[in-house]
Automatic annotation (TrEMBL):
Source organism (scientific name): Nitrosomonas nitrosa
Keywords annotated in UniProt: FAD, Flavoprotein, Oxidoreductase
Family: Belongs to the GMC oxidoreductase family.
Name of the protein described by the UniProt record: Cholesterol oxidase
Cofactor(s), names only, from the UniProt record: FAD
Length: 364
């Protein structure tokens, strides 16, 4: 059974009705699927949806999810369809943190994604398209690792969109407190290799008690719900979306969207949060000394209500890069009524957010 089939089985066990959600047909051609390997031999995946000759553009997902976040059919129009319908050659990248790949169960770092996965993906797309460069849209850790890749010397990228985060990371005090507790480090010492947002309604008493305890996690009244996967997501990452921006079908299918995160990647992410800027897995400042490598067209997006990654994160990046390389390369937008991932999977993202992404791709 494939890893994707395993996750479908998990969804059925979590909430059987989720497999019967009324989902429409994806408005894109059947994809061409390419498996390829990183420089250290990890199997990765690209899905190509050729809407036309614009691009090519790679869409890179966050931690604990997969490229499904870009092709979700519980919303009226997803980012894949939006770009496909505007004649873009769209490539959905599943890097080693993708919950749909076996690699997500292995220990790996954000450095691995940045320095091993991105170069292999860009090389593969350029090889298959005959083009000399690509554009890349990254969200969350997908944007952080994209920035790390560029700072690490990644070539053949003509423009990027970084959603929510890039060189710097600031969050709410409660999230920094959890990071200071060094929970990923402690769990790794105890032999735990990964955490998961997934939970099973047929799980044992200890898991059910844990899920019940998550109800005590401080969440604003207007953001509370009865979805245990939603609560696990908040415990792991902080508040990732404004509930008002998610339609019911998307909220109901969170168990399909979110899954496991390996401890090594989480440990590096929490270290970056505590330092407030990119560092490698050893804690070394190996990336920021090379800001000149970010002298290319870049757009930064932040949700104005993003409590997971505060908007000042991209503001810090924007100001830093404008000072270092000049204002002509950079744009930044703050989306007043959005949080974090709802900028991609929100029910109105096609009207409010996607045009800003398109603008960068069209004007690079």
């Amino acid at each position: 059974m494939s890893i994707l089939a395993d996750y479908v089985t998990q969804v059925e066990r979590y909430e059987p009705h989720l497999t019967h959600l009324t989902e429409r047909t994806l408005r894109a051609d059947t994809p061409q699927i390419y498996f390829f390997t990183s420089s250290d031999g990890v199997s990765l995946r690209l899905k190509r949806y050729r809407g036309g000759n614009k691009g090519p553009v790679i869409l890179s997902h966050c931690i604990g999810v997969s490229s499904l976040m870009y092709s979700l059919t519980t919303i009226e129009t997803n980012l894949l369809e939006y770009l496909f319908e505007r004649s873009y050659d769209v490539w959905l990248l599943d890097h080693r943190l993708s919950i749909e790949l076996p690699a997500s169960g292995q220990l790996s770092t954000m450095d691995d994604v940045a320095l091993k996965d991105y170069p292999a993906a860009v090389r593969k797309v350029c090889e298959l398209t005959g083009r000399s460069s690509v554009q890349i849209v990254g969200h969350g850790v997908g944007a952080s690792t994209l920035t790390m890749a560029l700072l690490g010397g990644l070539q053949h990228v003509s423009a990027t969109v970084c959603s929510q985060v890039s060189t710097h990371l600031y969050s709410l005090p409660i999230n920094e407190f959890k990071a200071r507790m060094f929970m990923p480090r402690i769990l790794q010492l105890l032999g735990k290799h990964w955490l998961t947002a997934y939970t099973d309604i047929h799980a044992g008493i200890s898991t059910r008690l844990y899920d019940a305890a998550l109800m005590l996690h401080p969440i604003p009244r207007h953001e509370r719900c009865a979805n245990v996967v939603c609560h696990r997501i908040t415990t792991l990452f902080g508040e990732l979306y404004e509930h008002t921006q998610l339609n019911q079908a998307t909220h109901d299918t969170l168990a399909r969207l979110f899954g496991r995160v390996n401890i090594a990647a989480m440990k590096q992410l929490t270290s970056i949060l505590l330092q407030h800027h990119l560092i490698d897995a050893r804690g070394k400042d190996t990336y920021l000394p090379h800001l000149d490598r970010l002298k290319l067209p870049m757009t930064f997006l932040s949700g104005g209500r993003n409590d997971c990654v505060l908007p000042k994160s991209t503001q810090k990046t924007f100001d830093l890069l404008v000072d270092a390389n000049g204002a002509q390369f950079y744009k930044r937008f703050e989306l007043t009524h959005y949080g974090h991932v709802d900028c991609i999977i929100g029910q109105n993202a096609a009207q409010d957010v996607y045009p800003l992404i398109l603008d960068r791709l069209e004007t690079a």
